[in-house]
Amino acid sequence: DKSQAPTSDKVEALWICYYSNIFNPARIKVRAMQAQLLKRNWKNLPEAVVIEPLIRNAPMRLGAMLETSEFQRVRETDFSLVQPPRGADWSALRDAAASCRGCPLWKNASCTVFGEGPREARVMFVGEQPGDQEDRTGKPFVGPAGQVLDRALAQLGIDRSTAYVTNAVKHFKFEPRGKRRIHKTASPREIAACRPWLEAEMELIKPDLVVAMGATATRALFNAPLKVTEHRGTILQSALNRQTLITVHPSSLLRLPEGVDPEAEFARFVSDLAQVKPFLTAAQKV
Ligand code: URA
User: Fold this and answer.
1) pTM for the full model?
2) Among the atoms of ligand 1, which is closest to the Cα of residue 144?
3) What are 40-87's pLDDT values in tens digits?
4) What is the distance in A from the centroid of ligand 1 to the CA of 139?
5) What is the mean pLDDT of the chain?
6) How far, in Å, is the centroid of ligand 1 from the Cα of 148?
7) What is the pLDDT, as a whole number, of residue 9?
8) Which residues does a 6 A CB cutoff place in the pocket of ligand 1?
9) Which residue blocks in 138-274 are alpha helix, DSSP H?
10) What CA–CA distance (Å, rounded) separates 203 from 208?
11) Given the CA of residue 140, which atom of ligand 1 is nearest to it?
12) Which of 16, 32, 140, 267 is the most exposed place for a label (fewest CB within 10 A)?
């Protein structure tokens, strides 16, 4: 019984030291900790003595981590005005974009993923930014999100190879986590830095319809943070003066909140994209 329990334990100090060192101030969730490990039981935990000071110091330690993190640090000098070569053809544009240093994202990405598709395409699909597989292959929408897009287009009988497919941001932004690279949303500043490439692609292709898929593409095309949920399924004139259909990003269908019917959401995406069809058969290009 309790009286037989030892009052001290030789490895307690070692355990407390270990616990303090693996405690990650960037990942604490105090409420979850307390829900899973009721405070009234803390007295039985040897590490309880360090939990409170560790939580108290977490914001300060997190600030210091961000300060010293080379990966996160953004300097003023990391941004410069991008000027795509004027009057260049697609290959020249793509080659120029390959060495773009307009924002800091080039540093950690493997390559610039430029848009692809026929120069005479009438429809241009704009996504957010390349993902892990796009970064490895240098091609847009070849990973899981691309497969969702392909499946939706196939359902509508639209041949993706007739369209031009690109992204608002041309470098993969991620955070390393072990061996994995976790997607991070591009900041408004990074979106703005990359915009001249999107404008140059638009100028070259002159699509009759642009499809903005998700919030980043919508922000880049409208130069404003329009709400995708409010405007999806509608065609508006973008800041780049093109008819632009707003819809969700196909990757959102891969991580739907619990309780949302995936089939119904996919059907909604297909129904948004159905508006592309008349543009593919339109007679006149502007
Ligand atoms: N998501 C995007 O927005 N673009 C890609 O190319 C791939 C995934």
Assistant:
1) 0.76
2) 8
3) 888 788 888 898 889 988 888 887 777 666 555 667 778 999 999 999
4) 9
5) 92
6) 11
7) 81
8) 127-131, 134, 140-141, 143, 145-146, 167, 251
9) 144-155, 188-205, 215-222, 228-231, 262-273
10) 12
11) 6
12) 32
